[in-house]
From TrEMBL:
UniProt family annotation: Belongs to the sigma-70 factor family. ECF subfamily.
Biological-process GO terms, alphabetical: DNA-templated transcription initiation
Residue ranges constituting the RNA polymerase sigma-70 region domain according to the UniProt record: 21-80
Membrane spanning residue stretches: none
One matching Pfam family: Sigma70_r4_2
Coiled-coil features, chain-numbered ranges: none
Name of the featured protein: SigE family RNA polymerase sigma factor
Domain RNA polymerase sigma factor 70 region 4 type: 111-163
Taxonomic placement: Bacteria, Bacillati, Actinomycetota, Actinomycetes, Kitasatosporales
Keywords assigned: DNA-binding, Sigma factor, Transcription, Transcription regulation
The organism of origin for this protein: Streptomyces misionensis
CDD domains in the record: Sigma70_r4
Length: 179
């Protein structure tokens, strides 16, 4: 019996290590703050660990983990009843792709985009983050958010429309076009 628990713990440890950077990035994009992102990612993995035996045999454990994260974030957001705060910094996040080009310009562009995302309502922000940062399909996003595909389409379209007219992003696009 002890060997089974050790095997399960080892399997969960491998799963956690492989997913941690992506979970942390998603949590950061949802919460807008590094420490809140770390708390959200850790809380998510705590919940997942308690049900790991069932989750590990599921068709898509990642979808389950995303769903847990979205639910935890939504509960925290409802409890606080306040808007997302603009991200303070994102130190310690692991990027999936190597940086290319001018690092200062990339940092400024990233900061501008994160501030614009922080202005979106919670559901629109979740839809945009899951669809475009996590590259999920509409169906996967709907499952993660616990809503219909139509709601995902609507929230994504509204979020993207708000981002397109966000003054802070318009300044960045204008600056890029002039360069």
């Amino acid at each position: 019996m002890g060997d089974v628990k050790e095997d399960r713990d080892e399997e969960f440890g491998r799963f956690m290590a492989a997913r941690w950077p992506r979970l942390l990035r998603t949590a950061f994009l949802l919460s807008g703050e590094r420490h809140a992102a770390e708390d959200l990612a850790q809380s998510t993995l705590e919940r997942v660990y308690t049900a790991w035996r069932r989750i590990s045999t599921a068709d898509d454990p990642d979808a389950y983990v995303r769903r847990v994260m979205i639910n935890l974030h939504a509960r925290r957001h409802r409890r606080r009843l306040k808007e997302f705060l603009a991200p303070k910094d994102d130190l310690g996040l692991v990027r999936e792709e190597a940086d290319r080009g001018d690092r200062i310009t990339q940092a400024v562009d990233r900061d501008v985009l994160l501030r614009a995302l922080a202005q979106l309502p919670a559901r629109q922000r979740q839809a945009v983050v899951l669809r475009y940062w996590e590259d999920l399909t509409e169906t996967q996003t709907a499952q993660a958010m616990g809503c219909s595909v139509g709601t995902v389409k609507s929230n994504t379209a509204k979020g993207i429309a708000k981002l397109r007219v966000a003054p802070v992003l318009a300044d960045t696009v204008t600056r890029r076009e002039q360069a």
